[in-house]
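FAQ: What does a multi-protein file look like?

Like this. Sequence, then tokens, then the next protein.
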Amino acid sequence: MKAKLPMIARILFGLIFFLSGVAGLAQQMGLMPPPPVEGMPPAMLTYFQGIMASVYFMPLLKITETVCGLLILIGWFVPLCLVIMAPIVLNIFFIHAFLAPSGVPLALILGALLIYLAFFAPPYAPKIKALFHKK
């Protein structure tokens, strides 16, 4: 089981971001309705209105999530994708910590999966840790 834990974590992490990215892109293209704003905290609503006003950010974010999620799912360029996804996961945590606390548990799960894959999973940890060594 210990040998399969990195694969399970990788598939779970990749699947979450791949599906989130695809759903977000479908919303951007009008194929899915946007999430309801009823019950959304006012600060979160203001945040999303600002993000949407930038025009480019949400498509860029969702394309990044989709591509990196897919690459992580199939096991290609996993260390690179983990580095790219780290600021996205951190931002997800801060958004929920400050604007919508109900999402903190999912943000903590994403953070735990990322930290595990990047620093403790044998296939990927040595490559990520190498980024922190002085040359």
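And here is the next protein:
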Amino acid sequence: MSPCFALVDCNNFYASCETLFRPDLKGRPIVVLSNNDGCVVARSKEAKALGIKMGVPAFELKRLFEDGTLLAYSSNYALYADISARVMSTLEMLAPAVEVYSIDEAFIDLTGVSHCVDLTAFGQSVRHTIQQNIGITVCVGIAPTKTLAKLANYAAKKWHKSGGVVDLTDKTRQRKLMALLPVGEVWGIGSKLSARLNKLGIHTVLDLADSSPSFIKQQCSVVESRIVAELNGESCLALEQVAPTKKQIVSSRAFGERITSKDLMHEAIAEYISRACQKLRKEKQQAKQLTVFVRTSPFSDRQRDPYYANSITTSLAHPSADTRDFLSVATKLLDKIWKDGYRYAKAGVMLADFYDEGVYQVDLFEPAPPAYQSKALMTVIDTINAKTGSKVWFASQGASQAWSMKRAMLSPQYTTKWTDLPVAK
């Protein structure tokens, strides 16, 4: 049986989440800002119509914010993650297999579905169900390969007459669409590779599809030759129902205010350690390697703020997922790379060298790992924080965290915080 995929993609996801509980904002131009409210990372369709570009610094839009032409919101990661989880769980009820590709995208397996129902009708059913159950609008692209499904989804978003669903299982329709699109619209073809292909006379997606796979492999790599195969209906990328195990976990943020105090930097590093270890436990992994890094801003005036960046890595005696083990090591590492007299703009930690729980082979001459109730304690902390919103923390993380990320325009966490639940009047 020939494979068939659909890519389900949420429209303007961050901006849509912001309007979900604010119907009065429907039709208003909205942007979502990056960490520390620095630049635009998401736009509503109305903001796009105003010509607002991705990545534009927030200060350049100050006049539009002040006169009410444009509304801005700080990134509300808790809200976006929860709405995403609701979308993905809905897809899992509608499709036989789902691969969560990103926070707002998922591939679903439609192999054999066409024998039971029209694929376009199925796509419309997916759109209707998610819109009705969650309030988020999605577009659906259907095709025999993942790469073609990406193109179909692009078409579903670009051409409103499609009704938000494009079935690209027909070869003639595939070639017609590919002839209309520049090669840079292909999944996996970035700007540099696109420019390189243009020099080879490949300007449209159809030009790439009609190229010899061996020629593309010679000029680029085996990855691009697989893209050619996918564009011609040969599925080379299977659905990944189980996410691959991470090889590292990084926890890092730019500070809301520059840090000049070593004590405050210790608080920040402790906070990042706590977040990273929480993610580690969620992955059911243990880590043995820890890296701590700090840096000043590379964009500041070097006369006023001289640049300094450094990192240091060490390994624990035994793999662990206990926050306390990493906190004790991180303090010593920071002491080694800290330098007085600098205004630090960012810091972070990275966990690496992962092991599955209980599979680490202890060396005969190594001391036995500590016997305290590590897993039980961490489970209790994670459970309490999941229910109450980080009410339990280590003293080294600090109480006020004046250095924390600026989010002056943060909307309520409508679905994950009791105090932020919307109230009907």
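Q: Is there any per-entry metadata?
A: Some entries carry free-text notes. For the entry above: The radius of gyration is 25 Å.
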